[in-house]
Amino acid sequence: MSTQDLRRATSVVTPMPEIQTTTAAKRTDLHPSVPPYLKETYSWAYLSPRALAFFDRPWVVSAILFGNYRRLQRALLDEVEPGLTVLQAACVYGDFSKNLAEFLGPSGKLDVIDVAKLQVANCERKLKGFPHARTLLADAAIPRDAAYDAVTCFFLLHELPDEYKCTVLNALLRSVRVGGKVVFIDYHRPHFANPLKGLMSLVFKTLEPYAKSLWRRDIATFASAPERFEWRKQTYFGGLYQKVVAHCRGPFLSQAAPRQR
Ligand SMILES: C[S@@+](CC[C@H](N)C(=O)[O-])C[C@H]1O[C@@H](n2cnc3c(N)ncnc32)[C@H](O)[C@@H]1O
C-alpha cells in the first residue's frame, strides 16, 4: 500500500468502534438485529427460505462467480492451516463452510457467524458432521477480542454500505491475534479490457449498490489503523476478484494495555 493510501485511510474512515467487553459482545451476539441494508437490499437473496433453496448449491454460486468458486475457495484455503482457530464472518452459500471445517480438521476450531437466523440454521445443518465447528447468530460488526488465528471474509464486504464496511472490517481486524491474519475475498475493479466489466457494472447498479466502492478503493483504506497490518493483494479473473490478506504485526493499543477501571 502506498503512503498516500495510508494517509487517506487514517484521515477519511469513520473512527474504529471501541473494543467491546466480552460481556457486551455476548449480550449483543444473542439478539443482533438484522441491519437495515440487509433487509432493504438483500432480503431477496438471504432472508427468504425460497432464496435459500435456490442459491444454496455450489453450481449456482459457481455460475454467479463465472466458474471461479473453487478457485477462490482454494485461494482462501491457501492462507490457513489445519489446527487453527478460525472465524468465518458470515455464512456463504454452497459448500464453503464445510470445506473450511474439513480443512481445519478436528484439531482446529471454526466459528461461523451470521446476522440472519435463517442462514445460521442452514449453516448449522451443513456443519452437523463437524463437532469442532459451530454457527452463531452474531453481527460481524462486533469485535471478538483477538480470539482467532485467522478470520475469513468471503464476499461480505461488497454487500455493506461504506460506513458499515469500515465498522465490520475494523471489527474483524480486532478479532485476530498478533501474528494472525484476516483474509478477504471479494470483488475488485476489472482490468479495462475485461469483457465482463460492463455486465458487472449493470449488476451492481441494479442489485448490489454498495459493491462499486471496492472498484474505487483498496480494502486496506477502510481500516482505521492499517499500519498495524502487513497488506498483500492478489487479483483473479482479469481483475474482477481479489484476495487481500492483512497480517497482524502488532496489538491494538487497547489489546496491549488493558484499560484501568
Ligand atoms: C457472505 S455474504 C455473501 C456470500 C456470497 N454471495 C454467497 O455465495 O453466499 C452473505 C451473508 O452475509 C450475512 N451478513 C450480512 N451482513 C452481516 C453482518 N453484519 N454480520 C454477519 N453476517 C452478515 C447475510 O445474512 C448472508 O448470510
Ordered list of secondary-structure elements with their pairings:
Elements: H1 3-12, H2 22-30, H3 36-46, H4 49-55, H5 58-64, H6 69-77, E1 85-89, H7 96-104, E2 109-114, H8 117-126, E3 133-137, E4 148-154, H9 162-174, E5 176-187, H10 197-207, H11 213-216, E6 229-236, E7 241-248, H12 253-256
Parallel strand pairs: 1-2, 1-4, 2-3, 4-5
Antiparallel strand pairs: 5-7, 6-7
Bound molecules: S-adenosylmethionine.
Which structural category do the helix and sheet elements fall into? Answer: alpha/beta
CATH architectural designation: 3-Layer(aba) Sandwich
CATH topology (level 3) name: Rossmann fold
CATH superfamily: Vaccinia Virus protein VP39
Helix content: 25-40%
Tell me the strand order in the biggest sheet: 3-2-1-4-5-7-6
Q: Could you give the distance between the termini? A: 38 Å
Please give the count of helices: 12
- Number of spatially distinct domains: 1
In round numbers, the mean pLDDT is: 88
Major sheet characteristics: 7 strands, mixed
The first-level CATH class is given as Alpha Beta
Which ligands are bound?
Answer: S-adenosylmethionine
- Gyration radius, to the nearest Å? 18 Å
The shape, in one word, is: globular
Count the E strands. Answer: 7
